[in-house]
């Protein structure tokens, strides 16, 4: 008897269970042919996958054990280190694999934070790990600068913006703290290969339109989850792709996170080759004896471009989206949501006052971004008898480079000094206000505009107040100069412009690779403004469904792994909202506070969603929520806080993949059941209802039979629905009580004396 219909084969992670292999032998393994066509994503995963059957061709949907090329941790190196020690690990499996960079809370000069930083540095030195101290730059940019994120490899980071490495043709995706501890100790992690979406660019960007405008447009145009939890591959003609600079690509790849994707991958092409060759020459001249020069060398580049990875003809994509770059214009994203994208021309006419402006972040803090912002003031000086203008009197402008080397390059070009003379306040190279840390945070009632990636509510400001809108560095600079949202005037709309040209389509059989379906083309006069949540659901008249029997002839797993629960049951507590993000689940102000007691975690759990949650939910409840539960940052406490509240199972219409990863790693169970959410909304959804509702409905999940049974009240009808099965490697982690225990059991024990 095989896996449930539609479930793909898997690669089982090593386990201390003696009967895992016996369990595995019970499952069908059709033995995929090595001739199956693969996307670039699948090919890179294949290179890094371990413990897969000979001849197995990795495809989307497969669970695989992975050995990443590099693993980055930042300030969270300290909690990862504590996990590493607590599981009994004594040495880093492969020091070359690990990179640590202090970049988040670097302006916190408290003794406790400085002591934490000293501990991280001492640990890195002891184990021979590559370490970058506070002030060197944001970890993602350092991996780019220093050659750790290499084209054709798979690199992970315990941060949600690992997607950025895709700008170099390097498959980057986020992992969480426990994953990082596993990689430190064992050299490996796990991943379910996501569906792959093909984003096909045509045309070229008009003057005054940037990579930032491109990704903001994509987030606003396709804001209904089209690429949620997908890997993205960007394609286009040689002419189109050559027009996108590497900095543009890094920006676009970085913000695929905000679009809801797990990765964003650009091709290994001539544009990338030119950039890498220039890097190799630069390091050979200025740092001839550094390790970075060894990474950036022409011989290595010759090998890379002699046989670059490309998608096979006939490779299958889950989605196709086409965007004509030549029809774009400058955009502003937000406020409070990346799903809202508004043409700059529409906002300029509204004279929206700006109080604070930010040219910061790993998204837009490179030398080219600083140069673009400086050019706004230089152009204004030409019109003002050569006198450099100052920013508007009521505006605070903050600048921080993505890395120290990018700042030094901007200083050599003179652009950094231009912004300082105009009144900008420099911040050290780090994450700072982008993650809601002072100085420079918005005050109640203030409006800001930022060149950062994320503008979720609470992220860049005080709780419950409007956050900065996101835009390109030149728009931020022009807004700081004008004192209101404005552009530099570089963009001129073409005379024949009739709106943005784009399309989206489902896959078509036998479609040649990179060729998007042409059956649907839409011209949009502007990007539709949308709220963060979808339109409210109008409750239908309550109906009583007929009792349903379990589907006939189920094809389910014959056994569960030892220690994995056969059934999970409890009362449903309903949080009727979509896009409940990790800050709503676990407030950001606690994220970097170490050793928060479980009682306190339970107290604040879901408090940014509903302050009454902790007084309503009870131990043993089953939390049910809407779509994309757990989106946002990669904070692991979003899962552990729910466990601290006594919730063992979360059911949602859909989940953020990163949240599910955190959940599995901490033995919090997750089940997708959109039908259940629809039914709850039919009965309970009202415009003035409570945010958290006790339903008096009960749910029982029969894990072995892949079946959920719901009873609507007491007495009430029972009805059932089929849910996906769990693969053995996921069961193994949960059965151990989480990934930490799995690692503890997997580490070789020292020989007895």
Automatic annotation (TrEMBL):
GO terms for molecular function: 4 iron, 4 sulfur cluster binding; homoaconitate hydratase activity; metal ion binding. CDD domains: Homoaconitase_Swivel (cd01674). Its main location: mitochondrion. InterPro entries: Acnase/IPM_dHydase_lsu_aba_1/3, Acoase/IPM_deHydtase_lsu_aba, Aconitase/3IPM_dehydase_swvl, Aconitase_4Fe-4S_BS, Aconitase_4Fe-4S_dom, AconitaseA/IPMdHydase_ssu_swvl, Homoaconitase_mito, Homoaconitase_swivel. Its EC number is 4.2.1.36. It is an enzyme of class 4 (lyase). Catalyzes the reversible hydration of cis-homoaconitate to (2R,3S)-homoisocitrate, a step in the alpha-aminoadipate pathway for lysine biosynthesis. This is Homoaconitase, mitochondrial.
């Amino acid at each position: 008897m095989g896996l449930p219909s539609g479930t793909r084969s898997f690669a089982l992670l090593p386990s201390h269970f003696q009967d895992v292999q016996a369990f595995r032998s019970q499952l069908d393994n059709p033995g995929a042919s090595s001739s199956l066509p693969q996307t670039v994503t699948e090919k890179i995963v294949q290179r890094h996958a371990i413990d897969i059957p000979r001849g197995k061709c990795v495809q989307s949907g497969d669970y695989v054990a992975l050995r990443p090329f590099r693993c980055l941790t930042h300030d969270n190196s300290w909690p990862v280190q504590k996990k590493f020690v607590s599981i009994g690990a004594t040495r880093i499996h492969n020091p070359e694999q690990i990179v640590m960079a202090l970049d988040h809370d670097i302006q916190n000069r408290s003794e406790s934070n400085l002591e934490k930083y000293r501990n991280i540095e001492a640990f890195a030195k002891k184990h021979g790990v590559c370490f970058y101290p506070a002030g060197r730059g944001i970890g993602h940019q350092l991996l780019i600068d220093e050659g750790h994120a290499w084209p054709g490899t798979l690199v992970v980071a315990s941060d949600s913006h690992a997607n950025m490495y895709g700008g170099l043709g390097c498959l980057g995706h986020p992992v969480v703290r426990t994953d990082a501890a596993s990689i430190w100790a064992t050299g490996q992690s796990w991943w379910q290969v996501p569906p792959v979406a093909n984003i096909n660019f045509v045309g070229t960007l008009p003057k005054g339109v940037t990579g930032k405008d491109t990704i903001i447009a994509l987030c606003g145009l396709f804001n209904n989850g089209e690429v949620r939890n997908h890997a993205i591959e960007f394609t286009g003609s040689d002419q189109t792709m050559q027009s996108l600079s590497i900095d543009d690509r890094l920006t676009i790849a970085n913000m695929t996170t905000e679009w809801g994707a797990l990765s964003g991958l650009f091709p290994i092409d001539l544009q990338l080759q030119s950039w890498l060759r220039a890097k190799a020459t630069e390091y050979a001249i200025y740092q001839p004896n550094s390790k970075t020069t060894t990474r950036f060398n022409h011989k290595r580049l010759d090998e890379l471009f002699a046989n670059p990875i490309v998608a096979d003809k006939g490779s299958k994509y889950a989605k196709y989206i086409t965007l004509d770059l030549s029809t774009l214009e400058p955009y502003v994203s937000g406020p409070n949501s990346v799903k809202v994208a508004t043409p700059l021309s529409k906002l300029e006419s509204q004279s929206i006052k700006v109080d604070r402006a930010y040219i910061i972040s790993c998204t837009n803090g490179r030398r080219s971004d600083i140069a673009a912002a400086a050019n706004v003031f230089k152009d204004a000086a030409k019109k003002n008898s050569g006198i450099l203008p100052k920013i508007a009197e009521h505006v605070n402008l903050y600048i921080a480079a993505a890395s120290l080397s990018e700042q030094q390059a901007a200083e050599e070009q003179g652009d950094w000094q231009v912004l300082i003379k105009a009144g900008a306040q420099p911040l050290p190279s780090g994450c700072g206000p982008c993650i809601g840390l002072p100085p420079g945070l918005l005050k109640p009632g203030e409006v800001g505009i930022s060149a950062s990636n994320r503008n979720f509510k609470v992220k860049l400001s005080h709780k419950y107040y409007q956050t900065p809108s996101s835009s390109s560095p030149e728009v931020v600079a022009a807004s700081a100069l004008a004192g209101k949202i404005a552009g530099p005037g570089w963009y001129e709309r073409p005379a024949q412009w009739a709106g943005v040209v784009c399309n989206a389509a489902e896959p078509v059989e036998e479609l040649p690779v990179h060729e998007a379906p042409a059956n649907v083309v839409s011209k949009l006069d502007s990007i539709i403004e949308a709220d963060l949540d979808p339109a409210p659901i109008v409750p239908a008249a309550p109906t009583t469904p007929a009792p349903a029997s379990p589907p006939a002839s189920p094809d389910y797993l014959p056994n569960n792994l030892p220690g994995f629960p056969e059934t999970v049951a409890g009362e449903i507590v309903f949080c009727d909202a979509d896009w409940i993000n990790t800050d709503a689940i676990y407030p950001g102000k606690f994220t970097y506070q170490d050793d928060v007691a479980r009682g306190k975690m339970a107290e604040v759990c879901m408090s940014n969603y509903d302050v009454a949650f902790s007084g309503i939910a009870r131990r043993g409840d089953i939390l049910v929520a809407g779509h994309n539960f757990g989106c946002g940052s990669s904070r692991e406490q979003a899962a552990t806080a729910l466990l601290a509240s006594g919730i063992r199972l979360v059911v949602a219409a859909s989940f953020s993949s990163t949240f599910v990863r955190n959940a599995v790693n901490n033995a919090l169970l997750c089940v997708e059941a959109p039908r259940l959410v629809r039914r709850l909304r039919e009965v309970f959804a009202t415009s003035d209802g409570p945010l958290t509702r006790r339903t008096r409905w009960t749910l029982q999940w029969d894990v072995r039979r892949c079946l959920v049974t719901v009873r609507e009240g007491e007495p009430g009808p029972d009805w059932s629905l089929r849910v996906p099965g769990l693969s053995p490697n996921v069961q193994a982690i949960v059965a151990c009580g989480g990934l930490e225990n799995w690692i503890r059991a997997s580490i070789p024990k020292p020989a007895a004396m």
